[in-house]
Amino acid sequence: MAGRRAGVADLCGPGFLNTDLNLSPAGLKTALADEARALGFDCVGVTAPDSIAQAARHFRDFLDAGAHGDMDWLADRPERRADPRGLWPDVRSVIMLGVNYGPDRNPLEILAQRTRGAISVYAQGDDYHDLIKKRLKALARWLVAAQGCEVKVFVDTAAVMEKPLAQAAGLGWQGKHTNLVSREFGSWLFLGAIFTTLELPSDGADADHCGSCQACLDICPTSAFPAPYKLDARRCISYLTIENKGPIPHEFRKAIGNRIYGCDDCLAVCPWNKFAQTGRETKLAARDELRAPALTELARLDDAAFRARFTKSPVKRIGRDRFVRNVLIAIGNSSDAALAAEAERLLDDASPLVRGAAAWALSQLKGREAFEALAARALSAEPDETVRAEWRITSAAG
To answer: What are the beta bridge partners of residue 153?
Structure first.
C-alpha cells in the first residue's frame, strides 16, 4: 500500500557553500542526475511544486468517500499534500527519484503454494525507507555543497504525494491501479523526493500509456478498484494485512489466500513489467527466508522470535500479533488439515486478535462436529467479547 505515517523530513541547511562549480541551472540538473545515478538511483526528474493540482482534487474525493479507511493521518491537514508548498513554503523545485526493485521471479507463483506465506516483493528485503533515505541524504548534501541551497528529503513518510509528483517529473504515470508505472521499470519503483529552494528546469510530465488494458483491475482478489484509477483502500489486501489493526473482515478472508503481508497482484500482472530489470543494488535483493516461508514456522513466532526474524524489515512495524493474525488467515485458507494443530495451539495465545483468527482458521480446517466441540470449550472460558463473537459467527456460518 502506498503512504506510511512514520514521518521523517530531514533539513540540510546552507552550510556547504561551494560556488566553484559555477553551473547553469541546466548544467546543474545534468550534474545532479549523474550524481543521483552514481548513488544508486535508477531515474530522476524535476517538477514544480504547483504541478499536481488535479491529483489534489482526486485525493480530496478519495478522503470524502472514506476510502482511506483507518489511515487517519491521510486526512490530517490534507492541504499539505495538495501542494508541496503547504508542507514547506520555501520550496521552488521538487526532485523526484526512483529505485528499481523489480523481482527476479514471478511473485504470483507462490500463491499456489498454500502452506507457505506470500510476502509482498517490497518487504522481502531490508526496509526501503532506510536504504533510500541514506541515498537521498547523500544527494541532498551534494546539492547543498554545489549551490548553497536549502533542501528537505522525504521517502514515503511525510505529507508528500510522491506518485503524482513523480508523474509530473516524467518518471512514469499513475496506472489504473493508482501505482506509478514506468516504461523502463514497470510497476516496480521505490520513490523518494528532495524539496529544494533552487529553481531547476522542470521535466515534462509523462503521459498515460495504459491504453485499454485493465489487467490490474481484473486480477484484484477483493475488487478494491471501484473504477480505473480509483482505489478503495478498505478492500485492498495490502491495507487489510498491514494498516488494519483489528480482525480482518469476514468477507475478505477467503480472497486473501496465503498473502500474509501485502499483495503484489495488481503490480505483478502489469504488461510494462516486461521491461523491468532486477534491482542492481544487492541490498534490495530478497532474503531467502522471506521468499516463501512455511506457515508452520511463522505461526510459532513469539514476540522475540518475530522481531529477530524481521529485523530491518518493514514487516516488523505491524508487530507480532497482527502478523500472526495474517498467518492464521492463510492457515485457514490452506486446505491442509495438518495445520489445524498450529491454529489450535494459538487458541491460548495472549492476544485476542490472534485467538479470534485461530478460531476462524479452525472453522475452515476442522469438521463440523470437532469444531463445535472446540467452540463450546472456548466459549466457556474466553474472557474477550470480540473473540467470543468470532466463535459465534464462525459457528453460525457452518
So the answer is: 10, 194
Q: What pLDDT is stored for residue 286 in this prediction? A: 85
Q: Taking residues 250-262, what's their average pLDDT?
A: 98
Averaged pLDDT, 291-314:
97
**66: number of Cβ within 10 Å:** 11
Question: Of how many residues is the chain composed?
Answer: 398
CA dist 276 and 279 (Å) reads 9
CB 161, CB 52: distance < 8 Å: yes
Residues 303-328 have pLDDT tens digits of 999 999 999 999 999 999 999 999 99
DSSP β-bridge partners for residue 154: 193
Mean of the pLDDT values across residues 280-300?
84
What distance in Å separates the CA atoms of residue 56 and residue 62, rounded to the nearest whole number? 10
Which residues are CB-contacts of 125 (< 8 A; sequence separation ≥ 6)?
101, 283, 284, 285, 286, 287, 290, 313
Nearest to 210 by CA among 274, 270, 277, 276: 270
Nearest-angstrom CA–CA distance, 383 and 289: 36
Question: Is 288 a residue of the active site?
Answer: no
CB 107 within 8 A of CB 268: yes
List, as own/partner pairs, every contact residues 86-89 make where C-beta atoms lie below 8 angstroms and the sequence separation is at least 24, other chains included: 86/159, 87/9, 87/158, 87/159, 87/160, 87/195, 88/152, 88/195
Question: Annotated catalytic residue: which of 156, 232, 265, 349?
Answer: 156
Closest CA to 285 of 57, 39, 104, 69: 104
C-alpha cell at 259: 498473502
Which residues have C-beta within 8 Å of that of residue 112, sequence separation ≥ 6? none
Contact yes or no for 380/346 (Cβ under 8 A): no
Nearest to 97, CA basis, from 27, 148, 38: 38
Query: For the purposes of burial, counting CB atoms within 10 Å of the CB of 228, is it exposed (0-12), middle (13-18) or buried (19 or more)?
Result: middle
Report pTM.
Answer: 0.89
Mean pLDDT of the chain: 89
